[in-house]
Structure formats: structure tokens, C-alpha cells
Design brief:
Number of helices: 14
Shape: globular
Strand content: under 5%
């Protein structure tokens, strides 16, 4: 549908229709690139480069139309495409090798010439093509795009300002060598969350759904998911040292449970929720039955303590066949 809308927008020379279609397509390319269905680092990178290119075009179109809301969304997509490139490259274990191959040695079938030109545009500055700073350049450009989204959103669109800030935190997570900066960022992000959006010990949030900006719940979910991933890293480090990992596992379970609960407050079925579930499943499916039982108990305790009934996490684990109460 986005492709049809894009073709129609271009045919009618309608910048707004074209820009909206570009944002939607960029997001689709990005999600598809990081899914398991796309295999191979060059293929993932090609899709992300295309996502960046069309998101960047959307930015320019909405600068012309003067639509602040859409310009913020486009800037976020630009930043996220660059962030996900860092994620894919670091997951490969050989980021510089893959970048060098894509720039100078890949076939046209593996990396189309337009994507190769885009990558060169992103990485080579002032005629310098040294590989040592390639990842840092991607990080700097992603951060710049997300901070521009924050600046433009300002107080007019608080949910999008938070969206950009949370995505910047995930950028530092995927960069992997900026842990202290990420820790400091998380503290500041939690300070930005309006208290009325948080689930209380007596059930749901204080704010009425009709008055709420639902996107804020989605961002709270992303924050909890990020904290869960960080707790998981710590748990793996403890396991290497043969330490007791149960306390860390309980933190992981707590954060994952809240991540899905808040994401479900935003909507029962949306692309971010499905992505969160996939990520959580990948982390839990490798645990032992004893560890999954410990996770299940944490989830049940949260539901009892906050009078929430059956949590989204329990439903998800049951449906996935990994629920061991």
C-alpha cells in the first residue's frame, strides 16, 4: 500500500502524500532488514541504506511543506536507519570488514550501485576514506538526526520528543562501547516520563485513556525492554564467573514483563509489540525450564502485587510454549 501511495504521490507531484509514503516505506524496510527473514549482513545493510535514503528524502519534502509533525517522524526514521546499521554491523562481529567489502568489493547483485554510493556518502568525509572511524561516523549521524527530531518536536509533540530520545538510548546500546553514557541517559529519560502514565499498585495508570498520548506508553515499554537487555548482559557476565544469576534473572523477568505490559497499553497488536515479543522470545527460549519457572513466578508476582490480572507477558509466554509456573 505504501508503494502504491508513493507512486500516486509522485505522479500527482503531491509532496505530502509522497512524504508520508516514504516514511512508512522506510520503517517497513528497516523492520524487514532486522528480522530473521533477511539473512546476510550485506542484504540487511542494503535494505537499511534504502530506508535511510528514502527517509532523508521525506525530511526534505516536509521541510518544504512546513509540517513539523511529519518532519519529526522523518528525522526519527533517518536516525533509526543509521542506528540499525550499527546494530547489524556489530552483530556480524566484523563491522569494518563488511563495510569495506560493501564499499569496494561487493558485486552489483549483492550491493546495488545506488546503495554503494549512499554508503560512501555516509562514511567518507572530506575525502577521507579510512576505516578506523566508520562506525563512529554512523553513530554521530544517527545521534544528530535523533537530536534534531527532539529539537523540532520540543514541547509541541512530547511523545515524539520522547520517541527520539528513547531511540537514541537504543543507539548507544547497539554501539556497545558507550555503556556509561547509556546509563546516564536512562536516568534522564525516566525523569521525563509523566507520572500519570505509570501503572500504580492499584491497577492501571492514573491518566484516562481518552486524554493520554498513547505513544508515551510505547516508549515506556521500550525503556523497560532496554533495561531488561542490559540486565541480561549482566546476568551472562555473572554466569561466566560462576556467580548466582537468580537475582539478575529476576530483574530481567521484571523488565521484560513491564515492557510488554506498557507496549500493550499502547495497542493490543502493533509492529513494535511484535518486535518486542520476538526479541524477548529469543532471550528466553535458551533458558532452562528451571530458569523459565523463575521468570514465570516473577510475572505472577507482578500481576498479584499490582492487581492487574493476567499480564501480557504471561499470555505471550503461554502462547510461545515457554510458560512454567
Amino acid at each position: 500500500q505504501s508503494s502504491i501511495a508513493l507512486a500516486l504521490g509522485r505522479a500527482l507531484e503531491d509532496r505530502r502524500v509522497t512524504g508520508l509514503a516514504l516514511i512508512n516505506l522506510a520503517e517497513s524496510y528497516r523492520y524487514y532488514a532486522i528480522s530473521e527473514r533477511t539473512r546476510g549482513t550485506p542484504q540487511k545493510m542494503s535494505r537499511l541504506l534504502h530506508a535511510w535514503r528514502i527517509a532523508d528524502e521525506a525530511v526534505h519534502l516536509f521541510e518544504q511543506t512546513g509540517e513539523t509533525l511529519r518532519k519529526v517522524e522523518a528525522w526519527i526514521e533517518v536516525g533509526c536507519a543509521l542506528r540499525d546499521m550499527i546494530r547489524v554491523l556489530n552483530d556480524s562481529g566484523q563491522p569494518v570488514r563488511y563495510l569495506s567489502r560493501m564499499l569496494y568489493h561487493a558485486s552489483a547483485k549483492e550491493v546495488p550501485s545506488d546503495n554503494q554510493a549512499t554508503l560512501r556518502q555516509l562514511l567518507e568525509q572530506e575525502g577521507q576514506s579510512d576505516a578506523s572511524g566508520w562506525l563512529e561516523r554512523l553513530l554521530a549521524q544517527s545521534q544528530e538526526a535523533l537530536e534534531e527530531a527532539e529539537r523540532v518536536a520540543n514541547s509541541t509533540y512530547p511523545h515524539l520528543r520522547l520517541d527520539a530520545a528513547v531511540n537514541k538510548a537504543w543507539l548507544y546500546y547497539y554501539a556497545s562501547n558507550h555503556r556509561q553514557a547509556l546509563t546516564d541517559m536512562l536516568v534522564k529519560l525516566w525523569e521525563q516520563i509523566p507520572e500519570e502514565y505509570l501503572i500504580t499498585s492499584y491497577g492501571g495508570p492514573k491518566i484516562e485513556r481518552g486524554r493520554a498520548q498513547g505513544g508515551i506508553w510505547k516508549q515506556i515499554g521500550k525503556l523497560y525492554l532496554l533495561e531488561g537487555m542490559l540486565a541480561l548482559e549482566f546476568m551472562h557476565e555473572e554466569a561466566i564467573l560462576n556467580a548466582n544469576v537468580t537475582p539478575s534473572l529476576q530483574v530481567v523477568a521484571d523488565r521484560f514483563a513491564w515492557a510488554l505490559e506498557y507496549s500493550t497499553l499502547y495497542g493490543e497488536d502493533h509492529r513494535d509489540l511484535r518486535h518486542d515479543e520476538e526479541l524477548i522470545y529469543d532471550q528466553l527460549v535458551v533458558l532452562s525450564k528451571q530458569q523459565l519457572s523463575a521468570v514465570s513466578k516473577v510475572v505472577q508476582n507482578i500481576a498479584t502485587r499490582h492487581r492487574l490480572g493476567t499480564l501480557a507477558m504471561e499470555r505471550f509466554m503461554r502462547e510461545s510454549g515457554i510458560w512454567y509456573p
